[in-house]
Design a protein that fits this description.
Radius of gyration: 18 Å
Number of strands: 0
Largest sheet: none
Structural class: mainly alpha
Shape: globular
Order of helices and strands: HHHHHHHHHH
Number of helices: 10
Distance between the termini: 35 Å
Length: 181
């Protein structure tokens, strides 16, 4: 079935879902672009219009999860770290099956670039003094490493438990460094 009258976001979502479904059936490295397109109900040309590689699809997935978790935050001055970090953990937990599938396929390293882009590190960091640039880099890396460590434990802790753990080593002022777009 070919898909018609779809938005770019919808088309990319279909291909993302198709890849993740295929990853349940076979090894990631053995999945072809043709298989993804067929499963998604799109032409190969549609795939290449939206993605350069299968890794781009995984990055799209991570970005979609982060976007979902951060969409409600528009005003940095009114955000508390507890709510902020909990929303990230909750979004990843909502996609636990897919996240763990990606982790066990050794593709979770793609998350670091997505976090950096989502928080616009390269664009906003240059405006900060050097110490703040390092602090922002440290915060992004900390979020990344906590998510990776959580995945390595098969996401056994709940988002509430992970938030409580995170509160033990983060302060409220650090959140103001992150750009939420």
């Amino acid at each position: 079935m070919r898909r018609k009258n779809t938005t770019t976001e919808m088309m990319m979502g279909y291909m993302c879902s198709a890849l993740l479904e295929l990853m349940l059936e076979k090894d990631y490295a053995k999945i072809s672009i043709g298989e993804i397109a067929k499963k998604a109900g799109v032409d190969r040309s549609s795939y290449y219009r939206h993605f350069k590689s299968k890794e781009d699809i995984i990055s799209f997935f991570f970005d979609m999860v982060l976007k979902e978790s951060l969409d409600g935050f528009t005003n940095l001055s009114s955000i508390d770290f507890t709510l902020y970090i909990h929303s990230i953990y909750m979004a990843f937990y909502n996609y636990k099956k897919e996240v763990l599938l990606i982790y066990h396929s050794n593709l979770s390293s793609l998350l670091l670039d997505v976090l950096s882009k989502r928080f616009q590190f390269s664009e906003i960091a240059i405006e900060f003094p050097l110490t703040k640039q390092y602090e922002l880099s440290y915060i992004i890396g900390g979020i990344y490493n906590n998510l990776i460590f959580w995945m390595s434990r098969d996401m056994n802790e709940t988002p509430d438990e992970l938030t409580e753990i995170s509160l033990q080593f983060r302060d409220e002022e650090s959140i103001s460094l992150l750009s939420l777009r």
